Amino acid sequence: MAQENLSVVLQAKGDLRLENRPVPEPGPNEVLLQMHSVGICGSDVHYWQHGRIGDFVLQEPMVLGHEAAGRVVKVGSAVTHLKPGDRVAIEPGVPREMDEFFKRGKYNLSPTIFFCATPPDDGNLCRYYTHNANFCYKLPDSVSFEEGALIEPLSVGIHACRRAGVSLGSTVLICGAGPIGLVSLLVAKAMGASIVIITDLFTERLEMAKELGADFQLTVKKDDGPQELAKKVEEILGAQPEITIECTGVESCIQTALYATRSGGVVVLVGLGAPMTTVPLVNAAVREVDIRGVFRYCNTWPMAIAMLSSGKVNVKPLVTHRFPLEQAVQAFETTRQGLGIKVMLKCDKNDQNP
């Protein structure tokens, strides 16, 4: 095995570097992975540009990356379900203790959870990486490494649609057609939503949404009023949507989401914006519109793998740019500029295929 472990390290706010680190040894319950494909997430870029997200503040150098798939090269002494050569998708959030959240199946809410590329925990944008074997999921031959890496954003869509209660015949509004809005669209359709309308500022993103199965696309302008937009949505659909999945975190979009949703319906907040946000809470309260939060995901990888291997969901069109690991800084710049949809880094020098 090559002893070179090229890693994408955020040294400090604005200081992104490639550096060689030692190849780690797996612990008893871990596997050593040769990384293959790692997607760049908006959160990676946010840490690079701002050095923090909310209460998570970069204090020391951290390896970025958490949307990932790779190949097992070594297994820890207690690992029985994986072997060298297995292709796996990585769930980046691993609970550190069996607390009340873990017991209730909501381990994503555990305050002590390990999470790739969230300070102080290192991510997996590198050549070799060790991870808890129970949070590495074997990929069927029909699912590529890139699709395996895209299970992470897809999981956000699955968790959001579960929290929203999307089911056969649901009508759904999605605010924002970035990567998370698009995976929410794919999942909502796969879960049986009959009509999905999606909004965005950028027409090229809405074009992609149309290709992925959105029934209606609404281009919004920065100066559109929330109530005016809610009215437009109702006019297009002929009725208000039962469910709104808000993926932007922008105050005016959250306002639109609440105004637009049918009485007795559900608004799920996926996008994260300002810590204090002004919203028409009384309007939502008197109409019994439920507001539900989303924090990452839990128990989604098996469903995501089943969706991909059965062909129920196709995430391949989301990957618009690919870069070898050596060109990581250029790849991050591409994401920062908002070009394309999903930028994928290829970590295996000898296998740059999807």
Describe this structure in words.
It is a single chain. The protein is of the alpha/beta class and 354 residues long. The chain contains eleven helices and 20 strands. The strands form five sheets. Strands 3, 7, 8, 11, 12, 19 and 20 form a seven-stranded mixed sheet that branches. Strands 15-14-13-16-17-18 form a six-stranded parallel sheet, sandwiched between helices. Strand 1 (5-12) and strand 2 form a beta hairpin. Helix 4 (151-164) crosses helix 5, helix 4 packs across helix 10 and helix 7 packs across helix 8 (251-260). It is globular.
Which runs of at least 5 residues are low in confidence (pLDDT < 50)? none
- N- to C-terminal distance: 22 Å
Mean pLDDT: 97
Shape: globular
Share of residues in helices: 25-40%
Q: Number of helix segments?
A: 11
Largest sheet: 7 strands, mixed
C-alpha Rg, in Å? 20 Å
Number of E-state strands: 20
